[in-house]
Amino acid sequence: AQSVSQHNHHVILSEAASLELGCNYSYGGTVNLFWYVQYPGQHLQLLLKYFSGDPLVKGIKGFEAEFIKSKFSFNLRKPSVQWSDTAEYFCAVRGGATNKLIFGTGTLLAVQP
Amino acid sequence: GAVVSQHPSWVICKSGTSVKIECRSLDFQATTMFWYRQFPKQSLMLMATSNEGSKATYEQGVEKDKFLINHASLTLSTLTVTSAHPEDSSFYICSARGGGDGGYTFGSGTRLTVV
Which of B3, B13, B69, B107 has the most CB atoms around its CB within 10 Å? Predict the structure, then answer.
């Protein structure tokens, strides 16, 4: 069965700092990988996704993620965070032929102005 | 883009009563929808996969008789929490796969409080 782990549960950064959130998955076959963001009081929004091709994926709002197959990782990065990036970030994986999307535990990011 | 509407956004009910939550895909057809439960400060836990025209597939540990799912059309899935108890209080979120890009679109969630 597929699973996802996010190592950072709570991250606090100052504005303009660089961000990297870890995501590792467990699944032996082909995977689709996603990062979602949930702003306070709002629904989940897709930041970016990886299906195939270039392992470096660029998403909205300056976020990017790199799929490293050998490490089963899909870390999220942003070179310079803003106060408005304060939110909870979820990594998710869909494995093989299944339609099910499995989420990691989430990382709460707080950006201090 | 693809939009999923979830209703109601919040509901308070008495213990022992049943509550129905609706999830609609507004501009695309969704043969499959998903129901998640999110506890405070925790992740989304997949409860079940709702399949249009057939029975839902429940995840291990989810009581199918308590959480009734009906997917009667290509744009509507409903989750009914039957005989609700305070421990059923949670944030319920639906999602649908569709809209053309292979991604998933999420509803805005329903905050259920059972008193």
Answer: B107
Is the per-residue pLDDT at A23 higher than 80? yes
* DSSP-assigned letters across all residues of A95-108: ETT----EE---EE
Q: Which amino acid is at B22?
A: E
> Which is nearest to A72 in space by CA: A21, A19, A31?
A31
CA distance, residue A44 to nearest chain B CA (Å): 6
The token duo for A88 is 């909870």
* pLDDT band per the 50, 70, 90 thresholds, residue B101: low
Chain B residues in contact with A7 (beta carbon < 8 A): none
Amino acid, single-letter form, for residue B60: Q
Cβ atoms within 10 Å, residue B90: 21
The answer to whether A79 and A64 have CB atoms below 8 angstroms apart is no
Total Cβ atoms within 10 A of residue B9: 12
Nearest-by-Cβ selection for A51 from B97, B102, B104: B102
pLDDT tens digits, one per residue of B64-73: 999 999 998 8
pLDDT in tens, B11-46: 999 999 999 999 999 988 888 899 999 987 778 999
A44·B106 Cβ contact <8 A: yes
Distances (CA, A) of B6 to A48, A96, B23, B76, B106: 23, 28, 4, 10, 9
Q: Rounded to 5 degrees, what are φ and ψ at A39?
A: -75, 155
